[in-house]
UniProtKB/TrEMBL annotation:
Residues 3-167, 180-353 form the EngA-type G domain. It comes from Curvibacter microcysteis. Keywords: GTP-binding, Hydrolase, Nucleotide-binding, Repeat, Ribosome biogenesis. Gene3D superfamilies: 3.30.300.20, P-loop containing nucleotide triphosphate hydrolases (3.40.50.300). This is GTPase Der.
Amino acid sequence: MKPVIALVGRPNVGKSTLFNRLTKTRDAIVADFAGLTRDRHYGNGRQGKHEYIVIDTGGFEPDAASGIYKEMAKQTQQAVAEADVVVFVVDARAGLSAQDHDIANYLRRLGKPCVLVANKAEGMKEGMQLSEFYELGLGEVYPVSAAHGQGIRGLVELALEPLHLPDPEEDAEEADAGVIKLAVAGRPNVGKSTLINTWLGEERLVAFDMPGTTRDAISVPFERQGQRYELVDTAGLRRKGKVFEAIEKFSVVKTLQAIESANVVLLLLDATQGVTDQDAHIAGYILESGRAVVIAINKWDAVDEYQRQLVERSIETRLSFLKFASLHYISARKRQGLGPLWSAIAQAHKSATCKMPTPVLTRLLLEAVQFQTPKKTGMYRPKLRYAHQGGMNPPVIVIHGNSLEHVTEAYKRFLEGRFRKEFNLVGTPLRIELKTSANPYADKDSD
């Protein structure tokens, strides 16, 4: 599973700027819990072979008694509990503050791996100006400039070093090819554990999350009609009376990691609530991860005809980017609609691992061009010459030719539709990469 890095610090020390540097984007997945004013932001990062999840938090006041600061402190405490390593960000220019001492005391008590980072350190000498931060008792102070991108690569190496991560390629080789990893993802209380318990025929999924172990999803082996599965529940249920105040019932990190490691994701929605912002965020992450997906609307028996129409409309509008996924209406408690669900999961996995021969892809490409040529842009008309498969899970089709940078998104969707129809690709994203051949005359001076 991807390691998790949490960014912690008082307000205005540059955590969000550092978050954007580490994820190389301004996009974030937000855990939008009702009633909370400040949320945690989640993003993906990569350095070399290793990928990681970054959590950005609001300003942290560990001892906040009430109001917005108490809610922000809860969010930060949850992020720290989910993390493998904490990056404590201080302001090199503003210097040490009492609030920095409070945060350092809190982090020392947890005993979790921690990297102390002095941000905004561009143009500063590392000696005297940073020496005051050694008072925090967290070891070496690592200077960076998130705004200018200085020291970011070294920071990631420093953060990941104590985790002793295995080589991702070795992990892939160890995976059992005969087992389909199926992650059941969705918001809290949509019926994820009820569904898996129904499949298993017993009450298997009751978990107790201690702080520091909240990132572990619950994995259960399962076999159906000769096919082996590994069911991953991301709910993290607790026994009654065993809930820690600082730890939320829903771990976003757990869901993100389960999605990343799965072959197929079952996105479970609640018919009584429709498609919420959080559902759309999770769906977006599934698409970004390239995972095969099946959508199931649970509690379908609990809504009337009018509510059903509202749910169907909200799916069409808010989850339109998952049009390739099959849609099923079920009741986990009453065991309704579960048979077709397994057929859809098998179809999605088959589509995600489909092998597409180069001659067939090239023939389809040339037929598509003959049927509808790409639009001319200025002096250039893209010329698409041949195609081959560039990967699986999700399937990737690489198209070679000339002036392909002028191919429009609409034309790529047209090509995608032709490929999907030929190979019956249902339930998986399909990525099309365009590679333009180099112009042999580009570097020659004109006479």
